[in-house]
Amino acid sequence: MKNTSTYHKGQAVPLNRDNIDTDQIIPKQFLKSIKKSGFGPNLFDAWRYEDEGYPGQDISNRKINKEFILNQEKFINSDILISKKNFGCGSSREHAVWSLMDFGFKVVIAESFADIFYNNCFNNGLLPIAISEHEISTLLDLSNKRKEIEIDLQNQIIFVEDNEIAHFEIDPFRKKCILEGLDEIGLSLTHSSEIKEFERKHSLKSPWIFNKESD
Amino acid sequence: MSFTLYDKLWNLHEVSQREDGTYLLYIDRHLIHEVTSPQAFEGLKLAGRKPWRISANIATPDHNVPTTDRDKGIAGINDEVSKLQVVTLDDNCKEHEILQFDIHDKRQGIVHVVGPEQGLTLPGMTIVCGDSHTSTHGALATLSMGIGTSEVEHVLATQCLKTSKLKNMRVNISGELQEGVTPKDVTLAVIGRIGTAGGTGYAIEYAGSVIENMSIEGRMTVCNMAIEAGARAGLVAYDQTTEAYIKDKPFTPKGEQWLVAKEQWQDLVSDSEAQFDKEIEIDGSFIAPQVTWGTSPEMVSDIDGVIPEPNSESIRHALSYMNLEPGKKIKDIKLDQIFIGSCTNSRIEDLREAAKVLEGKKVSESIKRAIVVPGSGLVSQQAIDEGIDKIFIDSGFEWRAPGCSMCLAMNPDQLGDGEHCASTSNRNFEGRQGYGGRTHLVSPVTAAASAVEGHFVDVREYLL
Question: How far does B109 lie from chain A, in Å, by closest CA?
């Protein structure tokens, strides 16, 4: 029997494809916003709808692509996304993470993640979990059967119906940040005196880096 | 102790290790554009914080700017949402007294073209920008990485990036490139070889005779697409070519500082005994002009190749999106639009090479539109001074004002639904260049020759 401290429990939607790039997650026309919220309706816009979306539009009149998995009846209300290799590749746009979260996703599980996207997730509290190809295919299968997936972040285990499906790796501090929501900038600023001291030595050694204007 | 170039750059900038095991890496230069910065400035304001070192920052609007009617400035941006983003950059730069090359400035352009051009990118620096193609600057022996908006805010507030150390990969490209084979073909061939996740977790140093003989602009093209191989950073060692390029740029150190800097920069090479976690060997003599056929940069072929049989759901989906059948020859793909531009290929050498191919020729009548978008106001001016704009215009290209333009189509320059485009940009993702648009990534010379014929051609034969 398990002894779990559940971080999240929910149903998952499988996006069975490699290399899902951030242009697909949130197309460029929506990056014009100067806010961090409101991107959810346009998550995977080109796949979710049959027409071309634009910012500020009334989505209630748009034609839904019923084939796309996020629109299929049985996957509505999923808040875990499952995908394959290199999820979040391409553009550094943090809007990709904001739109996944705004849509309601709490966790993304994939075989691997692109570096910048992976960092962006932690900076916003979206939990990315990387597990093996074999474990992903088990989860894809179970999510198709609408089994609830349970994430025990403390012990780094994914359960389905009390069975352990996968153990995952996560940096201990990042785990702490997700669980406790720490202020990254505030934490770095506790090192202010070291930064100043570094800067002083650095400017003595390579003063041109600190030049203010071109001559 | 032997060090790689990446290790040396890291060691020059490591401030301290945080309690969580990650490091604070000091950032010398922070490049800012309008799309990924507004939320960072707002975050600063909400937390009551100020930028740590104003002079580290330099901004320019590039993603949203129109490439026509630029004399109207911001009033020329018809899309109100785009306009607000550019105005917000103006406001943030004014409020914090950050140097900006604004929409009216002749130095405005794609941030990754502007930095090196101005000498704001200097060897030995750490450089970040809220843009994944920041890897471009590694061509000048810098450690340069794309970051997200939260990290933009972190860098503004602390002058440091919170990060972990990357692993070292070296890609050795030996031999000599064939005539008509360009840095773009080299970088695409590397991606074809290692895949779009091949460099994840690594900094890639490009080395070997092909890189040593390459111009700085060519090295920028190669490093630009390190991110398309999954690597946040691309790097090339400092050498005489780097020194010659950087000398006398507006922000390059002068006088005594120049002499000291030049001396320091000599060390910006990997030690001969340095250990890499991974090494890839490629014979550059065998690289052919490259063309992508799918919706990921790793879906790439030699010009004389054919569309492959799909062996995965990803490829099946890509071929369906691209409307291409397995077995079709790359050269038989008919084109609707041509785009020469982007942070990958919009510098003066790119334009010169493409113009050589176009001189005395006309863009095929089957091409609906061919545009060329110089990387900056200064690149544009240089091209005009050399008469290159006229060659493009005479052949049927539209000569546009600088910006990111159709690389990501945030401005009005877009592909139509279903159109095939030979593009010198860096991403062939679905819809990237316009809703339903089909992008084929190629070099500027392949784009130019294919514009003339209306379908892909082998530029090696074309140059004979």
Answer: 18
The identity of residue A13, as a single letter, is: V
**In sequence order, what are the residues at sequence separation of 6 or more whose Cβ sits closer than 8 angstroms to the Cβ of residue A134?**
none
CA distance A128 to chain B (A): 16
Closest among B225, B237, B206, B229 to B3, alpha carbons compared: B237
Nearest chain A residue to B203, by CA: A115
Nearest to B253 among A24, A211, A213 (CB): A211
| Domains contained in chain A, CATH given | 11-148 (3.20.19.10)
Residue B367 and residue A115: Cα distance in Å, rounded?
38
Fold of B289-462: Aconitase; domain 3 (3.30.499)
Q: Give the H or E element holding residue B170.
A: strand B167-174
Q: Which of B408, B414, B438 is the mutation pick for testing A, counting most A CBs within 10 A? A: B408
A-B interface: how many C-beta pairs under 8 angstroms? 201
Cβ contact, residue pair B317, A17, below 8 Å: yes
| Domain B5-163 fold | Aconitase; domain 3 (3.30.499)
- Which two tokens mark A168? 């995952």
B143-146 and B126-129 beta bridge pairing: parallel
Chain B residues with CB-CB distance to A16 below 8 A? 313
What string of pLDDT tens digits covers the 464 residues of chain B?
Answer: 999 999 999 999 999 988 778 899 999 999 999 999 999 999 999 999 999 999 999 999 999 999 999 999 999 999 999 999 999 999 999 999 999 999 999 999 999 999 999 999 999 999 999 999 999 999 999 999 999 999 999 999 999 999 999 999 999 999 999 999 999 999 999 999 999 999 999 999 999 999 999 999 999 999 999 999 999 999 999 999 999 999 999 999 999 999 999 999 999 999 999 999 999 999 999 999 999 999 999 999 999 999 999 999 889 999 999 999 999 999 999 999 999 999 999 999 999 999 999 999 999 999 999 999 999 999 999 999 999 999 999 999 999 999 999 999 998 999 999 999 999 999 999 999 999 999 999 999 999 999 999 999 999 998 76
Could you please state the CATH topology (level 3) that the domain comprising B167-285 is classified under: Aconitase; Domain 2 (3.40.1060)
CB contact under 8 A, B18 and A215: no
The answer to whether A29 and A55 are in contact (CB under 8 A) is yes
Q: State whether residue B197 sits within 8 Å of chain A by CB.
A: yes
**What's the pTM value of the predicted model, to 2 decimals?**
0.96
Contact partners, residue A141, CB within 8 Å, separation at least 6: none
**The Cα angle at residue B138 between residues B428 and B171, in degrees rounded to 5:** 75
Residue among B40, B165, B30, B36 at smallest CA distance from B100: B30
**Half-sphere exposure (Cβ direction) of B185: Cα atoms closer than 13 Å:** 29
What residue type is assigned to position B190 of the chain? V
